[in-house]
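Predict structure. Chain length: 234.
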Amino acid sequence: MELFGELRELADHSGIDYAGVADLAQAHDAVVEQGGPLVEGFPRCISLGIVLLDTIVDQLPNRSDRAVAVNYRLHAYDIINQRLDLAASLISGYLQQKGYRALPIPAAEHADDVRICASFSHKLGAHLAGLGWIGKSCLLVTPQHGPRVRFASILTDAPLASTGVLMEEQCGNCTECVEICPQQAFSGRPFRDDEPREARYDARRCQSYFNSMRDSGQLPVCGLCLYVCPYGKR
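Prediction complete.
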């Protein structure tokens, strides 16, 4: 069995729904600008995704109900992130045993609290791996499940072929994610690889919204842009 098949088998056993490989040369400058020397020496990314439960995501408009917020925070965020991180660690260890370098990027940890971002964009990795496109919400939108998928990434020098071609943006004139955002954090501009994230998304507005929830004793849960996407609702 070729290497990606072996990795795909490990991913399947870990409950991973999406797996793909991206050639990072397509976005080298953007990757290095975000992650610096930590990520610069890795030519490829393995993208891993787990589909969220519709029964939980569909309750997000009722997130002021603490039971709804607790369920989302636990089963659509904390546990999913743990599952992704465990799978990424397992696959990274396997690659190291094979003699390759592998760096798992945590599913949900900020490496830069000023820019409010990780050391590598999971959405960009999944997009480059052909798993979906980056929508107006700056979420990765898959044709099958919309943005109702959480992703983690493994950077590696293993000789893996890219698994797909770049998917064209298919949001069209839809602006539901832009309109539902309580913080008006999205500009509505479609993704362009030559523009910074700030042209489309103000992360500080989201962060301040979550901070205000914490200050008022609420669980910091939103996700309305994820909930409303027509691709996810299908």
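Summary: The mean pLDDT is 93.
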